[in-house]
Amino acid sequence: MPDTVTMDKIVSLARRRGFVFPSSEIYGGLGSAYDYGHYGVLLKENVKARWLEAMVRERDDIVALDSSIILHPRVWEVSGHVEGFHDPLVDCRFCKRRYRADHLDQLECGAKPSKHPGETESCDLTEPRQFNLMFQTRIGALEETGLDAYLRPETAQGIFINFKNVAQIARRKPPFGIAQIGKAFRNEITPGNFIFRTLEFEQMEMEFFVPPADAEEWLRYWIEERLNWYLRLGIRESHLRVRPHEADELSHYSSATSDIEYLFPIGWSELEGIAHRGDYDLGAHTEGSGTKLEWVDSEAGERYTPHVVEPAAGVNRSMLAFMVDAYDEEVVADRERTVLRLHPQIAPVKVAVLPLIPRNEDISGKARALYEELRRAVVAEYDDSGQIGRRYRRQDEIGTPYAFTIDEQTLEDDTITIRDRDSLAQERVPISGARAFLLDKLAEEWKTPKAD
Ligand code: ATP
Fold first, then answer.
1. Which residues of the chain, if any, have pLDDT below 70?
2. Residues near ligand 1 with C-beta < 6 Å?
């Protein structure tokens, strides 16, 4: 079946089921800010957990860090962000809108949405001007004595300025990495496309410090490794690609970058960037701070500034890709259903416990007991409201991989029905083995049943 997903369908599902709400809605909303509801939080937490697992827990060459959002303002001068963290913008003198000059082919004209800005006769675009993306704030109570500061536009700088602290106590020598997940803020002028591009978002960044001669090889390694992470978590191979940056797209700190792109409903777009940052950042902060950020091995008589390879991913954008890739519609027994075929390890809820006849106290008692047992191991839900078909559909829409149903037969032989979200196959297993069944299933490798 062809892919039926559109951004509108994702936005509507996200809202209907409480994944994501427009922020400040009762005040008319704030463009490009979103609030995450219960299932959105669980999904986002799962994305972050899988990243930390792959980056830190399953390896012994990467350690974790959580640095401040507001850093010393000098950090951003020295890093080049004050000078160079810009987007080129154009204004339309006719419709009075502002657009990113490098995204015109993806944007709608303000006066004629079926066209791109600049394509109609009345469009009158200015020359591109550079606009700094950092949000400014002020530290201190008094306007006169306060210090101008920035909300970090990336988590990476917090890692570079801690290089010495971490290298000293982590007892690791290059190649080794420092990983961080945290909020970043960008004053994006042409946001939109739901949570793809927002003013604040979470990044998952890892700076991998390597001997300079090995940097190219590590760049290739991390591109492969990160691509495989998305594939392992069920994203279809046909919807992922690696795109090396052209020389004129490179950030001010990078000598080579490749993007992992996903085929979103808006077209191929960046999901994650993997950059060769060279010794740009450690070198700049050494010069700017006077603290030598280098690797010293006194036994081997070695001293050098490591080069850095950085995989930088977005939590929210990954979450959107997982939802888009999982979204499916099908007709089963003449009824349409919408289902999120999420990898079970990403799915917000792992199992739903459903008493078939909630008014029957024996049935609901057994269902409650099973739910209490399961929720100690995984995120589980108990649902006794409405017809069973509606309860199944609700779980399908939030991507719950398994539903355990307790019915009259359970009272006779202590078995329950297990319903598989994707195949809709039902099997009966003893209630005593339900927990083990679930945990085994969740640990299995998983491949999406969606066609490529
Ligand atoms: P873009 O070209 O889309 O603006 P970028 O190249 O500036 O992105 P990076 O600086 O490489 O992005 O940031 C790493 C990751 O952080 C991106 O791949 C993306 O997943 C995420 N990201 C960046 N900006 C935003 C944003 N405004 N909203 C949501 N996620 C973002």
1. 1-2, 143, 190-191
2. 154, 186, 188, 197-198, 201, 203, 270-273, 312-314, 316-317
User: Which residues 6+ apart lie within 8 Å of 288 measured at CB?
Assistant: 74, 77, 78
Which ligand 1 atom is nearest residue 198's CA?
Answer: 28
pLDDT tens, residue by residue, 59-71: 999 999 999 999 9
Q: How far apart (Å, rounded) are the C-alpha atoms in residues 29 and 398? A: 24
Say how many Å lie between the CA of residue 191 and the centre of ligand 1.
11
Tell which one of 201, 206, 262 to mutate to probe ligand 1, the residue whose CB is within 8 A of the most ligand atoms. Answer: 201
Tens digit of each residue's pLDDT (9 = 90 or more) over 227-278: 999 999 999 999 999 999 988 877 777 778 999 999 999 999 999 999 999 9
Note the Cα 325 to chain centre separation in Å: 13
